[in-house]
Amino acid sequence: MTSQPQGNEGNDEVGHTGMDTDVVIAGAGPTGLMLACELRLAGVDVTLVERLAERTGESRAGGMHSRTLEVLDQRGIVDRFLAAGELQGVGHFSGLRLEFDESESRHPYPLMILQYTIERLLEEWAAELGVRVRWSSEVNGISQDDSGVTVELGTAGTAPATLRARYLVGCDGGRSTVRKLAGIDFPGTPATMTSLIGDVELPDLPEDYIWGRRCPGGDYSVIAFEPGWYRVITTEHGRVPDREEPTTFEQLRDSLIRIAGTDYGMNSPRWVSRFSDAARQAARYREGRVLLAGDAAHIHFPAGGQGLNMGVQDAVNLGWKLASVVRGQAPETLLDSYHAERHPVGERVLHNTRAQAALARPGAHTDALRDVFSALIVFDDVNQYLRGMLTALDIRYPADGDHLLTGRRVPDAGLKTTDGATRVYELLHAARPVLLDLRGDAGLAAAAEGWTDRVDLVEARSEDDHWPVPAVGSIPAPAALLIRPDGHVAWAADAGGAPGTPALRTALATWFGPAPRS
To answer: CA-based Rg of the chain, rounded to a whole angstrom?
Structure first.
């Protein structure tokens, strides 16, 4: 990733104030890559450091949910991912079937796409934006003061090095070194079971797909990803190996035999790993100039495939806020809203994955519970509640104002402008805030005067009189709304209201900093 930055200009102060870069990001997985791209879109200088020497090619996580696809659409790159994956018409809650609603999003269905493909596509985008990556660079120490943070790096084969930056973000996984060095506690619940996972060949498998088959000793799944090879997942409750114990192909084979009574001729492993139902969350997502995102901030049983998605959404929430602070447009207190908004989301995911793990336990009592739950899940309200939770379409951040859209993600409504047809998400490609005027109110421009350097004012008309809002229903199209770069609504007004009010100016100052003094 050595190409020159594109889009917004870089930070001219880097190199002139003793800083090597504006932000150091530890960890070049999906969360770190997404955050680096968000910062570069805002013109912030970024250095990614990764302890690995190169990509491992391990498949790992297997999909993206609706809200993650939406944020990629907001940046104009979702088609790259859709072309590389396969949409799935149904989902599940602990193996129980969930239906999706096409009216809730332009991307209502999960996309089956392996993590190494996600990383490749994000890495290509990062290169286009000029993100620098230092491979074989492990964080060994950090120290921070009032002006920045010094990051000590251990680089294989070379002398230790340091980087001086304004901020450090740990995206370095569940065993995060950054989190430990920052002294951030990681409370939660320990593992009670173990799942083994591997990509293998299964010549004797009598069917192409097995999902959550429950057996007396546990459960297993077999998923066909590409012709000729399968992902095998086994889960055995009450078996918790030492964390440092290596995971082997033989362990996966033995586990499948214990549960299913056969290994289906398993051979030629590409990748084998394990995970558990340990659920932990950082006590705080920020310690001064050090922040956490992705698995460094939260780990949980990967039921419903929420982990990678939550990390990418952490990055999109944090990126524009951190950029605004680095660029001197917003006060440092804006960073506190990152914890305030994303920590409850993480808590909810830990809660629902604990519930899914409990529903998966073997035994007659759990079988009875699953039967009851299966009868309930067919009701629209129950299905909608679980669907919204897994897809993250129902998230509402705390926000001032009583409009139903305030704090929620904005629907991708069709719009008509003087330049032709467009969509709300197309207005967010530059990762800038948008003040959207849907009624031609002359007072909006006057109210936003002073923020035109950082907020785009767009006049348009909605193609629809009503907008669908997950967990709420259909609502009248608003007259105007202020959209944050992450696609959440900071302020909204209905027709007949008074859009050019102090409430709008308060929202502008709260989220995008005070207007410059003339």
So the answer is: 24
